[in-house]
Amino acid sequence: MGVWVFYDEEPHSVIEIEVTSQTIAPVTLNHYRPPSMIVDCPPEPSSPTVTPQATIAAPIDAPATGIAHPFVKWVGGKRGIIQTLLDHLPLGSPDYPVIDRYYEPFTGGGALFFALQQRRQFQQVCLSDINADLITAYRVIQSDPDALISALGCHAQNHGKSYYYAIRQQHTLTDPIARAARLLYLNRTCYNGLYRVNRRGEFNVPMGRYKNPNIVQAENLRACHHVLQGVTIEHHPFDQITPPHHSPCLIYFDPPYHPNEDGSFTSYSKQGFTAADQTRLRDLARDLHERGHYVMLSNSNADLIRELYATPPFRIFEIHAPRLVNCKSNQRQAVGEVLITTYPVRKLR
Ligand SMILES: C[S@@+](CC[C@H](N)C(=O)[O-])C[C@H]1O[C@@H](n2cnc3c(N)ncnc32)[C@H](O)[C@@H]1O
Questions:
Q1: Cα–chain-centroid distance for residue 180?
Q2: How far apart are CA 133 and CA 245, in angstroms?
Q3: Beta bridge partner(s), residue 300
Q4: pLDDT of 154-195, one tens digit each?
Q5: Is 230:55 a contact under the CB 8 Å cutoff?
Q6: How far apart are CA 338 and CA 305, in angstroms?
Q7: Of 47, 110, 156, 340, most Cβ neighbours within 10 A?
Q8: How far does the centroid of ligand 1 lie from the alpha carbon of residue 266, in Å?
Q9: Closest atom of ligand 1 to CA, residue 74
C-alpha cells in the first residue's frame, strides 16, 4: 500500500475523483492503455438482432414477478421525488379531462414512467432521449431481455479493473445487445453511476469502488420488459416529439438542468444543453399548451429558469430535492429545484 493510481484514457480529461481522508495520498493521474485481451465474452454478432425502430416485443418464457423500476442509475433521476411529481400531475381529479397519452422526451432512467406504469394504463406511451445507447437498451429490454441478461452474466463473470476499462473502450459497438449490455454493465460498476461523455461523445467515467456490484438484475429487467410492451421508444432530440392534435396528451420534460452557480453536472451528451436550448424548450412547452396538451417540467431553481417561465400559462412550484449532483463531496448540497406546469394543480391528498 502506498500510491493509488487512477487511470483515464484521455491524458488531459477532467476526472473528478472523490478523494476522502481515507484515501492514501498521493494520487497520480495516468494515461490508461487498455488491455489487448478481453476474457471469455462472445464476439459481437455480425448481424444485429433488434431492428432500430422495434416497438412491439416478442413474448419471453420467464414471467415477470415484482414491480418494474428504472434499470439504470441516472444523474438527475427522479426516484427520490416521485410522490411530488405524481402530486403535480393533471390526473385523478374530475377537473381534468381523461388523458390517455404520455410523452417523456428526456427519458433517462424513466423514473416517472415506471411509477406511472404501476398506477395507470395509458393508451399510448412515447419515450425518447438523445442518448443512443440508452434508447438501444430500452429497445433490447422491450424485445429480448433474456439475451441482455445472458450478456450481463458474462460481464459479471469477468468484472475487474482491466475488464471494466476494456469494455469502456468499446465505443463503436453496433450489435444492440452488446451495446445495451455495455451500457448497463458500465452503469452498475462506474463511479457513482454517472453517465458522462467527452467531446467525441465517448463515455469516460472511471470505475467505481463497489465490493459486489449487482450487475445482472434479471428480475427487474424482466419486469421492465413487461411494462415496455406497446411503448414507442425513439431516439431523437426533445423538439421532435409529435403528440397528436386530436386528444390531450401529458408531456413531462425533465431536461438537463440549467446550472446553478455550484457547477452542477450537465454533460449527458456531447452537444450539452445550453441557455438557448432552455429557451427553445420553454417555447415548445407553450406551443404544446396552446395545442391543448398538459405539460409538466422539472428544472433547477436558477434565475434563467424563473425568468423563462415567469408568465402564464406557466406556474412555478419550488420543491426541495434531497438529490446530490456534484461529484466533489465538499460541494454536495441539496439541489434547489422547480416544477413547472401549464395547468392549475389540484392536490388530491
Ligand atoms: C435529467 S435527465 C432525465 C432523468 C429522468 N427523468 C430520470 O428519472 O432518470 C436528462 C436526460 O435528457 C437527455 N437529453 C439531453 N439533451 C437532450 C436533448 N437535446 N433532447 C433529448 N434528450 C436529451 C439526456 O440523455 C438525459 O437522459
A1: 13
A2: 30
A3: 337
A4: 999 999 999 999 999 999 999 999 999 999 999 999 999 899
A5: yes
A6: 9
A7: 110
A8: 10
A9: 9
How remote is the CA of residue 281 from the centroid of ligand 1, in Å? 12
CA distances from 77 to 10, 16, 321 (A): 27, 20, 11
CA-wise closest residue to 255 among 235, 240, 237? 237
Q: Hey, which residues does 29 pair with through a beta bridge? A: 6
Taking only the tens place, the pLDDT of each residue in 307-330 is: 999 999 999 999 976 655 554 544
Residue 97 and residue 327: Cα distance in Å, rounded? 43
> Is residue 99 within 8 Å of 91, Cβ to Cβ?
yes
Q: Compute the residue count for the chain.
A: 349
Mean pLDDT rounded to a whole number for the chain? 81
- Candidates 224, 268, 278, 338: which one to mutate for ligand 1, based on the most atoms within 8 Å of Cβ? 268
CA of 170 to the centre of ligand 1 (A): 23
Ligand 1 pocket by Cβ (under 6 Å): 70, 74, 76-78, 105-106, 108-111, 129-131, 237-238, 254-256, 268-269, 273
Rounded-to-integer distance, Cα 78 and Cα 72, Å: 12
* Lookup result for grid cell 426533445: 238
Contact at 8 Å (CB) between 95 and 244?
no
